[in-house]
Structure of Glycosyltransferase family 9 protein:
Amino acid sequence: MNRQQDKKIKTIKFKIKEMLFLGLSKAKKEPLNMKNVKSIGVLLFNVGLGDVIIATGMFRELNKRGYQVSVFIDAKTSFLFERNKYIDKIIVVQRKGIIDNHKELYFDLLIDLYSRVDEHFNIRYLSVIRKIKHRYCIGFDVKKTKIYNDSVIPDSKDIHLTEAYACLLRYIGVHDADLSYDIYLPAEEKEKAKLFLAPFTHNKIVVFNPYASNDVRSFTTRQIDELLKLLQKNDDVIVIIIGEKNKIKDIQQGDRVIKNPLESFWGAAAMVAYSDMVISVETSIVHLANALDKPLVSVYSSEKFGGYESNFLFAPHYDKAVQLIAPNGAAKNMDMLKLFFYVKPIIEKIKS
């Protein structure tokens, strides 16, 4: 009961903040004219690494059309853009929407990608939009249109996120966009992974990511043990376990099961780069595998996200990927023999 009351109170507080923000904001009346646009700020905060990876192609396409593109992003995910040549500025959004030197910033166009998700997202995005001087503002399926010149709504809810971004880009005159992902893997991390994997040059490397950011999308200890036993029936396969150190600490290592010693995201990415295939329940690793064009078997758990079906919105979305949907909306219900049924032919193919 207390949790339900707390949730209701939070919802009321968000609604009050939203009313204040909207009440203090002027309605957009000038129609969007892209002839007036040279600088674009893309709002991409309060989201995970997978979401950021999916958006990378959009920055490249906007840059190629001559726009100066900046990204508003959380500190924890900003590292993904540090080497990205298509980004003009990385603007870190701190807690409560605080942005250093925000009064000095101006953009011809702001693009809101995520305020549609829920009240929390909506308030954070509205607060940033109000702070930043700009001429135009558009959003992906935004709920409160007063402060936007327009809300771009795809024809279907059963789409991949890149299709939604393609719709946004067409709206501003960017057609036939290539929205493949851009990852700039640090050379030093690749070298570390290469050295670590040097003793296994004659083996096939399978990267296994058993844990997601929440329990619903993660495998159980029993499932992990069962899959590792199946994988180890192949004598020339080495399994590299990747994931957060505190989550994978209890997984038993062996001669052919090794926990990744490179603990950063880039360290995991380097292992994926040198792997022969990937098995993952975590979407950031799924989209990383896409960016690096690696054979993949992924397991999804049927969650709704901002009114869209996650199985479509965040699907692997490339030819070398197999996407499995766990029964009853949780990875713990995935049959490991069924999973291995899809893994086995990929191993046989890479061995041949």
Q: What stands out?
A: DSSP finds twelve helices and 14 strands in the chain. The CA atoms of residues 17 and 68 lie 32 Å apart. The longest strand covers residues 133-140. The domain at 187-351 is CATH 3.40.50.2000 (Rossmann fold).
